[in-house]
Specification:
The complex is a heterodimer of chains A (429) and B (258).
Chain A (H helix, E strand, L loop, with lengths): L3 E5 L9 E8 L2 E9 L6 H4 L8 H6 L6 H16 L5 H32 L4 H7 L1 H22 L8 E2 L2 E2 L5 H26 L13 E4 L10 E4 L4 E2 L4 H4 E5 L6 E5 L9 H8 L5 H9 L12 H21 L16 E9 L2 E9 L5 E7 L1 H18 L6 H13 L20
Antiparallel strand pairs in A: 1-2, 2-3, 4-5, 6-7, 7-8, 9-10, 11-12, 12-13
Chain B lengths: L7 E6 L5 H7 L5 H7 L1 E5 L11 E7 L5 H13 E7 L1 H5 L11 H8 L23 E3 L6 H13 L10 H8 L23 H4 L16 H10 L4 H8 L7 H8 L4
Parallel strand pairs in B: 1-2, 1-3, 3-4, 4-5
The chains are: A alpha+beta (429), B alpha/beta (258).
Chain lengths: 429, 258
Amino acid sequence: MASKTIRVDYIARVEGEGALDLHIRDGRVTRAHLKIFEPPRLFEALLRGRDFAEAPDITARICGICPVAYQMSAVHAMENALGVAVTGPLRALRRLLYCGEWIESHTLHAVMLHAPDFLGYPDAIQMAREHGDAVRRALALKKTGNEILRLLGGREIHPVNVRVGGFYRVPSRAEFARLAEELKRARDLAVATVHWVAKFPFPDFERDYEFVALRHPDEYPFNAGRIVSSRGLDIAADDYSSEFEERHVAHSTALQSVLKRRGSYLVGPMARYNINFDRLPADVQALAREARLAATCRNPFRSIVVRTIEVVYACEEALRIIASFEPPEATAVALEPRAGVGHGCTEAPRGMLYHRYEIAADGSIRNARIVPPTSQNQLSIEEDLCEAASRALDLSDDELRDRCEQVIRNYDPCISCSTHFLKLAVHRT
Amino acid sequence: MTERRRPRLAVWKFASCDGCQLSLLDCEDELLAVADAVEIAYFAEVSSTMAKGPYDLSLVEGSITTPHDAERIRRVRRQSKFLVTIGACATAGGIQALRNFADVGEFVAAVYASPQYISTLATSTPISAHVAVDFELHGCPIDKTQLLEVISAFLAGRKPAIGGHSVCIECKLRGNVCVMVQGIPCLGPVTHAGCGALCPSCHRGCYGCFGPMQRPNTAALAVEWQKMGAAPGDIRRVFRTFNAWAEPFRTESESHGE
C-alpha cells in the first residue's frame, strides 16, 4: 500500500489557528502532527519591565476564552512573590469567579463546539434546527456563567475587577441574591445537559494516561492545591520546574511540555475528575454514575461528559459560596512591592496553568514564564491521534479526517493560549 | 418556500486572543436570530463549514505580525464588500505591538529556545496599515451590543450609530462620582467610549482598553496624572498597553521618559 498524507489545513471549532498532518505508510500511522500556526505574541518578553500589578490585566489578553485562569494564576504567583495570602471571603470570591468561567467556557465547548461532532453537524447553528432545546438550554447556561463574570469581574471577557490582593469592588448581598436565583435555574439546565451528552455515541477508545491536576485537602480544585498525578507525583507549585520541562523535539512544530523522566501527561477536566472524584459532592458523584462515568475515565471522547459534570459542580459551588457570603472587611489586602520569585498554578477550564514571575524591589517584572494547558496536552493529543487513526484506517479519508479533528477537539485546545508554540514553515506538498 | 438571499458574513482571525470573535457567541439571546438573518459563511471558531467568498461583511480580529498574514489580509479584503475591524489588535496592533518599541529579535530570543524557527515581523500593525477598512470597532474586547449595532448597520446600508466621545460621558450617564476627584488616576478623559465606564464603576481608574477617543487631549491628562504623583515611567506605561501603537497614545508615551 502506498503512503499517503491526510491533512487538515485549518482545524475548525477550536480556539486559535492550528492544522493537522497525518502520515500513513503501509497501513501504519507513521506520524501525527498537530501544527500550530498561531502567530507568536511574545507575552513573556513584553511583560518584562511592567509593574507586577499589571500582570492580571496583561496576561488575561493571552486568551479571550479563559482570561480568568490567566488572571488567577498571575495574582497567585504575584502574591506568592510578595509573601501575602488572600484568605476568607476574598478567596471564596475568587472561586466564585472561576465557577463563572468554567460554566461559560465548558458549556461553549461541550455544546456549541464539540457536540456537533457526535451528532454529525458542521456547527451548533445547524444542530439547533433539530436540537433546538439543547442549544437554547446551553445558551441560557452559558449566559449565567457570564452573569457571574459580569457581576464579580465587571465584564465577561477580560474582567476588570481582579487585582493582585483581591478585587476593586465587592458586589452587595442583594446583587449576589439575584445571581443565586439564576444559578438555581442554571443548575437544572446543567443537569439536563449532562443527560443529553451522556447519550452520545462514544468510540470505544482508552489510553493509559498519566493524569495531572491540582489536589486540595477539601475542595475540588480551582485556585489552590498540590500538583498531583495518577502515578504518584505530589509536589508544590513552587517545584514545578523540577518535575516538568518544555522540550524542543527534533522535527516537531512546537515546544512540548513533558514530565521529566516520563514524557507525556494529560491535564484538563478528565485529569481533574479522575484525581479529585472524592472531592465532588455526593449528588454530583451520583449524577456522574447515572451518566455512565466511573470514578476513573480514560476515554478522551467522554471528556465532554466530564465537562458537563464540572458545570453542574460549578453551579452548585457558586450557590454554596453565595449562601455563605460574608462581606470582606476590605476589597483587597495591602501589598508592598519587594524583590522575589513567585509561582502560581490554577485550574483553567482546559487544565492546569502555571505562571512564574521574578520581580525586582520596585515591583517591576524581571522575567515571566507561562505554561498553558494546551502546550502540556500537545504530546498527548498527538499520541491520541496516532492511536485513533491506526484503529480507523478502514474509514474513508474524509471520515478519518473528521475522526482526527474530533480527537483534537476532545481536548478543547486553546491555541491562542499556547504562547510557547513554535511556528515552523508550514510545508505543503 | 423561496428565500431572499441572506447576506454572507465572514469572521477572520489574525494575531489575537479570540475574545472579540467570542463576543458574537456571547450574544446568547441574539445568536440564533443573527444566524437566521445572515449566512455565517466563514467562522472557523464556530463551524466546520468554510464557504468560499465573496462575503458581504467581513469582521476581522487580530493584528498583522507575520509576512503570511500581511498577504492573507489582502485576500480577505478582495473577497469582502465591507471589512470591519473588531477590537484593539485589529484596530491598533494590540498588546503585541509593544514589540514595536523594542527589538523583536531580542523579544523572540527571550521566549523561544530556537528563535531561528520563528517567522515574525518586526512590528504588530493594525489592519488599516495594510488594506482599506470600512469601520473600526474599538475595545479590548469589543462591546457585544456595539458589535450587533455594527452588523445591523452594515446589513441595512447605514452608518453605525457609535460616537467618538470619551468614557467620561459614560460615567456621567451612569451617575458615577469621578474617580479622579477621589485621587485615582484615570484614562477615561482620553479613552474612547463603548464599555459603559466599567472600571470607574468598579472604583478603579480606566486603563484605556478602548483606545483613544476622537481628538484626545492626552498632554493635559498627563499633567493631571503628574499632579497626582505619577512618575514619568508610570505615565509612559499606562499609554503603552492594549492600544500602545494608536497614534495619540504612542506620541504621548514617547514624551515621558523612563
